Amino acid sequence: MNGFPEHQPARATLTGFRLLVLLIAISSVGPLAVNIVIPAIPGLAAALAADPAHVQLTVSLFFAGLGLAQLLLGPLSDRFGRRPVLLGGFVVTVLTSFAAAAATNVVALVVARTAQALGASTGMVIGRAIIRDLYARDRAASMLGWVTMSVVAIPMLGPLMGGALEEWFGWRSIFIFLGVGALLTLAWAFAALPETRPPSAAPRSLTKQGKEIRALLATPAFAGFVLCAAMISGPYYTITGGGPHIVLTLMGRSATEFGLWLVFCSTGYMIGNLLAGWLSVRYGGNAMIWWGLVLQFAAALVSAMYISLVPDVGPAAIFVPLFVTYVGNGMALPNAIAGAISVRADAAGTASGVTGCLQMGWGAVISQAIAAAAAGATSAVPFGWIMFAQSAAGVLGFWLLVDRRRMH
After folding, report:
1. Cβ contacts of residue 336 below 8 Å, gap of 6+?
2. Which one-letter DSSP state was computed for residue 112?
């Protein structure tokens, strides 16, 4: 029907490898578009004679756009198909990237970046839906593990690339680079990616799609998987919101050291994704979620207790347990997402969009909460216990909403 083996175990064929690489490419554009701009913010403020806080909106509103766009793009892909929505989104990414490069004031830049989020999120949402279209749940989790591992690795290089481009060619070169990269990916997807939406996913009215979103949220299994995905993603947003104040201000360490600790933890996440790619089919998605949640729970408890009992701790007290947490996150998150988008296979796009939106929404809430808590704190204790509370909520939610109900 579509050139790929629908709902069959993936085979180690060239076609399968090409599909995997294409999925990695389309899924990496959004995360890369966030990270590559960060080192250029001071230069952007100087070049546009703008307040750095206003320039920071190019990042914060981009995150907001990513979350809201995912809620919109999933239902659209169920209604109109994966291919047209993906291609249309990448057209938006190309146009807004070049618009950002041509901006002459901070308002135009922020508007272009916010619109860019709509297109940049397309690959994240549609990539997950395409995987679920083609593979059964456990194999889908395995594929998501491989894709997520690569998507984490590529944006890790984003700040280095953005800093080099800004230093050598000026800040506009960053957006030109993004535009050219998105254009090449668009051409590749146009030539190689067929429609994958299954026939059972018949076009539905927007009213019916709204009802479907409400029905998904009212389904205990879907709510449980989404809750897990949010709590598993929580440590990333927690360290993003509170880490700079704790490590740089309270512990007096350098930004370079903080960055190196983040790279160290990201390596743990990649290891977890690698394990998910290898083991999800063999042991099943729910087992992988449990292993990941237990690792996160144990590491967060050890870290919170150690920080509470030992005065004047260093970054290792946070980041060594966080490395273990990230290994568990990498194992569990692809399986939690695969579980969420498998609750109703004919609404995989809608489920993918809702899942991504709620993940981003929780990220906005927890990063703001930890930033407020850390700002008035004299130690890392609030950080440790907020991290633990999320791990406990993940374990409890998965047991009550998914595993316990399934056993009954």
Report:
1. 225, 226, 228, 229, 232, 289
2. H
| Burial class for 378, CB neighbours closer than 10 Å (0-12, 13-18, 19+) | exposed
Q: Along the 408 residues of the chain, how does pLDDT read in single tens digits?
A: 344 344 443 333 335 677 778 888 888 888 888 777 766 766 777 788 777 667 767 766 777 787 788 777 777 877 788 889 889 999 999 999 999 998 888 888 889 988 898 888 888 878 777 776 776 655 666 666 667 666 666 656 666 677 778 778 888 899 999 999 999 999 998 988 777 776 655 555 556 667 777 778 778 888 889 999 899 988 887 886 677 678 877 888 776 677 678 778 888 888 887 888 788 778 888 888 999 999 999 999 999 999 988 878 888 999 999 999 999 998 898 888 888 877 776 666 678 778 877 887 787 677 767 766 766 777 888 888 999 999 999 999 898 888 665 544
SS3 of 23, please? helix
**Domains within the chain, CATH numbers bracketed:** 14-203 (1.20.1250.20), 212-407 (1.20.1250.20)
Angle at 208 between CA 207 and CA 213, to 5 degrees: 100
3-class SS shares of the chain: helix, strand, coil, % to 5? 85, 0, 15
- How many residues are given for the chain? 408
Residue 209 · residue 346 · CB < 8 Å: no
The Cα-based distances of 90 to 65, 96, 287 in angstroms read: 15, 10, 36
CB 186 within 8 A of CB 87: yes
Q: In angstroms, how far is CA 342 from the centroid of its own chain?
A: 18
C-alpha 107/C-alpha 103 separation (Å) is: 8
Whether the CB-CB separation of 26 and 126 falls below 8 Å is answered with yes
Contacts of 118 (CB under 8 A, 6+ apart): 65, 69, 72, 73, 89, 92, 96
